[in-house]
Amino acid sequence: MPWFPxxxxxxxxxxxxxxxxxxxxxxxxPSGRGYFGLCPFHSEKTASFHVSPERQxxxxxxxxxxxxxxxxxxxxxxxxxxxxMEHLAERAGVPLPNDTDTKDYQKEREERQQLxxxxxxxxxxxxxxxxxxxxxxxxxxxxxxxLDMRTIKSFGLGYAPDRWECAREYLKSRxxxxxQLLEVGITVENKEKGRIYDRFRNRAMFPIINQRGLVxxxxxxxxxxxxxxxxxxxxxxxxxxxxxxxxxNLAGKARPLKFLIIVExxxxxxxxxxFGFPQAxxxxxxxLTEEQARLMRxxxxxxYIAYDGDAAGQKATLRALDxxxxxxxxxxxxxxPDGLDPDEVLKKYGPEYFRKxxxxxxxxxxYKLGRLREKYDPETTEGKVDFATxxxxxxxxLDNPIERDTxxxxxxxxxxxxxxxxxxxxxxxxxxxGKQNRRQRNSVGNNRNTIKKKQPKILKSRYSKxxxxxxxxxxxxxxxxxxxxDGLGNITLQDPLHQRVVAIVRDLLEKDxxxxxxxxxxxITDREDVKKLVDIFRQEMExxxxxxxxxxxxxxxxxxxxxxxxQELQNETSTLEREGIPDMEKYRLLLQELxxxxxxxxxxxxxxxxxxxxxRV
Length: 617
Ligand SMILES: [Zn+2]
Hints:
With 617 residues, the chain is of the alpha+beta class. It has six domains: 6-92, DNA Primase, Chain A; 105-239, Alpha-Beta Complex (DNA primase DNAg catalytic core, N-terminal domain); 248-360, Dna Topoisomerase Vi A Subunit, Chain: A, domain 2; 367-442; 459-541, DNAb Helicase, Chain A; 543-617. The strands form four sheets. A five-stranded antiparallel beta sheet has the order 1-2-3-4-5. Strands 13-12-14-15-16 form a five-stranded mixed beta sheet, sandwiched between helices. Helix 19 packs parallel to helix 21 (496-510), helix 20 crosses helix 21 (496-510) and helix 24 runs antiparallel to helix 25. The longest helix is centred in the C-terminal third of the chain and has 33 residues, at 546-578. It is globular. The two termini are 57 Å apart. 34% of the residues are buried. It binds zinc ion. Zinc ion is lined by residues 39, 41-42, 49, 60, 62-63, 65.
């Protein structure tokens, strides 16, 4: 674990407002002094995820998740503290500190950067091959698909020659190691034959580039009829299929970016781009994932689904609609005539027609109802009932009552079923969905979308409450922090996490820096610890007179420490007694201390009683 300088951490955190960062993942609506939204850590229909801009923390009243901007990124991006900090630094344009001189960190970072370099170098190599003699066929293929030179260049397309070891040899000649080439998946190893060779051979190459311009991996398409038609790099330290999108590097730069278009294939993305739709992106050889949907949401929540018009495309569309909705995107569905795909539509009918199809796209609900209409025959009573029942299920997902009512009325007039009956069915569907949600909630699992089983509420002891409150007070600022630290003297808190907070506060004071909840939290690198502290910071603190309470809590902690010492002394003396008191001097000293302790504890008790009586008067 590298140790970033505190000043740098503070700088990065202060330039990443928690509301801005969370808004990239969650739609937040202002409410009172904070914001509410649908919790990204568990699935829910009513917003119980609260963000406080004032305190720079978030908390979910549904599942109990909580933290600061760093732990939020850790949770959403599935990364550790270091990567979360890098992400936030990059987001805010803060350069990485030079003096994170822990060797491991530097080494790891350099290694990762080298892998990206290898990919870039390899992309250049493939690109140059496309314009050489052996790439003639590939170039002809791309041209036959209607791609012009500008498009081919802006996507960095290339050609992997029809030989077993050319990328391998080339990259090794450039000084890269066998191990690295295998790691990024440019080469593969056949262990049985003891051979290492190029993954991509005789294919048109599509480099996959992320928003930061790094080459993550490749997709390769055959030029003939052989299989598989598309081959992708395997997941590697530089490439994760489920978390990136093809074309996003270019789509993200489109200005103004008012929407994204999600398509099925690389070719669709490229053709759309060429016809003036740079907003097109595609998933990477898998169906759309939650991470990809959230990635899109980070750019813009308006998404057009432009999947192929065939049966598989329609099925994928239904799936994508739900995933996009859950990620907070507003999706519309484009439909193409005659089972064509977007690439074909553009070439056959042109961009104006394509734009018209966008204008005529359907909302999620309309699309789903349309699919149902095709499935059931409304001429028969049975078909009518089945259709109305299924339609009620779709309408149950709608949050907007006005929109729902419009659909119900339409169904009423179309099917001749009373709106009351349809509403009854909607309510039933909602009840079932609610039950399913509850069932999901009760299941335990590592999946972060299922909620952890509610832990039995452990009643906190007076003692641990006192520690919690001291931590809370210290986070209020310098004056309080000094008060608490003075009161504690050399007493150590029991909870190791609390000890850490005390050390952090001491350090902040020494360096003459501000003390706040946010400052303390950003120095805690474990997500669970951050959550524990946020829970403590959120506790109600009830008191009439702060100074009295403070001395009560400090007294509680001092007594606890004394009691613990007394227990130790008792154990030691009785051990000595069992052994026949081999060391009389030691025994005498222990007894003496024990006596003093007992005395202190009993006078303390008396004083407290007196104090309580005084207070009552
Ligand atoms: Zn939650």
